[in-house]
Amino acid sequence: MPTLDRLGRPLANLRLSVTDRCNLRCSYCMPEEEYAWLPRADILSFEELARLVEVFQGIGVEKVRLTGGEPLLRRDLHVLVGLLARRGLADLALTTNGILLGEQARALKAAGLARLTVSLDTLRPECFQLLTRRDEHARVLAGLEAAHAAGFRGTKLNTVVLRGVNDDELVPLLEFGRERGLEVRFIEYMDVGGATGWRGEEVVSRAEMLARIEGSLGAVRTAPGDPSAPAERYELPDGTRFGIIASTTEPFCRSCDRSRLTADGIFYTCLYAPNGTDLRGPLRAGATNDELAARILGLWRERRDRGAEERLGLTERGTLAPASTLRTDPHLEMHTRGG
Ligand code: SF4
Fold first, then answer.
1. Cα separation of 9 and 4, whole Å?
2. Pocket around ligand 1: residues whose beta carbon is below 6 Å from it?
3. pLDDT at 330 over 90
4. N or C: which end of the chain has fewer CB within 10 A?
5. 289: Cβ–Cβ under 8 A, 6 or more apart, which residues?
């Protein structure tokens, strides 16, 4: 029997952040000049991460996604992938900005990584530079090619849509994806920790995205998908499929089976949760798998999180936390929690 939380949601999914570092500075995630990083001594080793995944798997987690920050900045990540791939999970995936895929795609595939999601917000290098404050667009495109050459199929493209920045690229991105066998998932701009410049006016809602796509490409139909997945899937008249993640205007907390573990071993039951629970301390103090499992299960059984729904209910919606708060509590940052 799966472990259910207070709203009847199973613990089935773990997003495992392997580093809080990133090599981009996207305006919707890391817009500040300075960041407080997690102390190196606190970052879990691959063996510690694999041990915790073993514990999570023992209590129902079947799907693990490696995230960051940018996970490919973690040295020799393929070694961790190898350790996890041996565990026989139903799904082992990775979300990356793609910059380092050119160097690592082959090793990741050989180690047993099943699936990739690559963030790509624009097809225009100058827009990429503006949005990320880094000149790395060509490397991302090369990374996508390298992933295909290494044998990855069914790769997804994640695109955060911002009004006045890249919202004129919905159709070009769909065409780019169709030509390369990549399913695009448009993501509404979210007011998560780290999005210190978030403004409601810059959000392009799912309804607006669909209307714009239909206006250019014809009627869009709903396509089958995993009911617990964040993206609603759609199909164009030519059969092209894409997704929209409407976390801001139509949150999907009611079916959320995701838990999060930061690179320093803090467990979160929601992207917006104000506090997490330290698993690193007990792990390093010699806790057994059963003791760690009991701690996680106790937290999950009490889980009532509906962070995005609660944000939607606010009459005045602004940034989640100011930069000064984020500097004193970096665990509130999305790049620490793994998005
Ligand atoms: S806001 Fe929290 S509960 Fe809602 S979908 Fe996101 S992680 Fe799940």
1. 5
2. 251-253, 256, 258, 270-272, 305-308
3. no
4. N
5. 51, 54, 55, 58
Average pLDDT of the segment spanning 36-52: 97
Q: Which of 191, 256, 299, 302, when mutated, tests ligand 1's pocket best, judged by the most ligand atoms within 8 Å of its CB?
A: 256
**Distance between Cα 38 and ligand 1 center (Å):** 23
Within the chain, where are the H helices?
Answer: 46-58, 77-85, 101-111, 125-132, 137-149, 170-180, 206-217, 280-284, 289-301, 307-313, 323-328, 334-337
Determine whether domain 13-337 maps to CATH 3.40.50.1100. Answer: no
Pairwise CA distance, residues 269 & 239, whole Å: 36
Closest CA to 311 of 233, 246, 260: 246
Return the ligand 1 atom nearest residue 311 CA. Answer: 1
Domain boundaries, the chain: 13-337
pLDDT digits (tens, 9 = 90+) for 213-260: 999 999 999 999 888 888 999 999 999 999 999 999 999 999 999 999
**Dihedrals phi, psi of 300, to nearest 5 degrees:** -65, -40
**How does DSSP assign 58-103, residue by residue?**
HTT--EEEEESS-GGGSTTHHHHHHHHHTT--SEEEEEE-STTHHH
Alpha carbons within 13 angstroms on the beta-carbon side of residue 336 total 26
Single-letter amino acid, residue 326: L
Segment 262-317, tens digit of pLDDT: 999 999 999 999 999 999 999 999 999 999 999 999 999 999 999 999 989 887 87
